[in-house]
TrEMBL record:
Keywords: Hydrolase, Membrane, Protease, Thiol protease, Transmembrane, Transmembrane helix. GO terms for molecular function: cysteine-type peptidase activity. CDD domains: Sortase_A. It comes from Lentilactobacillus parafarraginis F0439. The keyword rRNA processing does not apply. The keyword Lyase does not apply. It comes from the Bacteria. One of its GO terms (biological process) is proteolysis. This is Sortase family protein. The active site is at H141, C203.
Length: 242
């Protein structure tokens, strides 16, 4: 093969590689959103019970916890984290689902706030929290896209809307009574309370502060007793309101 031909092949290869890199950089956000939106897991009661046992066994045997509750390690959601999370979804330990129909939110709930968990789901913020008992705080990423993760929480969630949580056995229905912005240092909002509430936390538009949504528990019933619309939503794959 002539040197000129070899050089041409090398130059063409470099050009294609640079073009691919440039396209990824240009469409980084769109690709990231597509990757996140493609995660539509089927949440089952069996998977939730398995995750709970896994956590309990780790505690009883003084092993390292399989999930993280270290807020200091939470980073902004970038393209690499989203792709890594999507390729390794087994790291997410399911706790249930959250549904806010009027906001267009239907997400899986994962245990903890590890970066890969928050890349695809809402995450629990304390290891001892239980749906319907005291304060049940959840964290989620604020996204520019108002349809991804907790993006709808920022753009669409208002006082008076209904929030539904399920552990695939019971449904816990909350009514939003507070929407407010707080400092990022307000970790006290995840503390336990006597009154059963849900606390949803995401970043504000600047990324320096936080938006907090709170709802009071107004009803609790078995999943099979839910309205047909709510039941259908929870029985279909998460992240899917179609």
């Amino acid at each position: 093969m002539k040197k000129s031909t070899m050089k041409k092949i090398i130059y063409n290869g470099i050009f294609v590689l640079l073009l691919a890199v440039a396209l990824v950089m240009i469409f980084n956000r769109a690709i990231k959103n597509t990757v996140i939106d493609s995660y539509k897991p089927k949440i089952t009661r069996q998977a939730i019970v398995k995750a709970q046992r896994h956590m309990k066994n780790a505690t009883n045997h003084h092993r390292r916890q399989p999930v993280s509750y270290n807020f200091k390690k939470v980073k902004s959601l970038d393209f690499q984290t989203a792709v890594a999370a999507r390729m390794n979804t087994r790291t997410i330990q399911p706790a249930g689902q959250i549904l806010i129909p009027q906001s267009g939110i239907h997400l899986p709930i994962g245990l903890g706030v590890a970066n890969q968990t928050l890349a695809l789901a809402a995450g629990t913020m304390r290891p001892d929290q239980r749906m319907g008992h005291g304060n049940y705080p959840l964290a989620g990423h604020h996204m520019v896209n108002p349809k991804i993760l907790f993006g709808p929480l920022y753009y669409k969630t208002k006082v008076g809307q209904q929030i539904y949580l399920t552990d695939m056995k019971q449904v816990y229905q909350y009514r939003v009574y507070r929407r407010t912005f707080i400092a990022a240092t307000r970790v006290d909002v995840i503390n336990q309370t006597k009154r059963p509430i849900v606390t949803l936390v995401t970043c504000d538009a600047t990324g320096k502060g936080r938006l907090m949504i709170r709802g009071r528990l107004v009803a609790q019933y078995r999943l099979n007793a839910a309205t047909p619309k709510i039941k259908r939503a929870f029985l279909r794959p998460a992240n899917n309101l179609s």
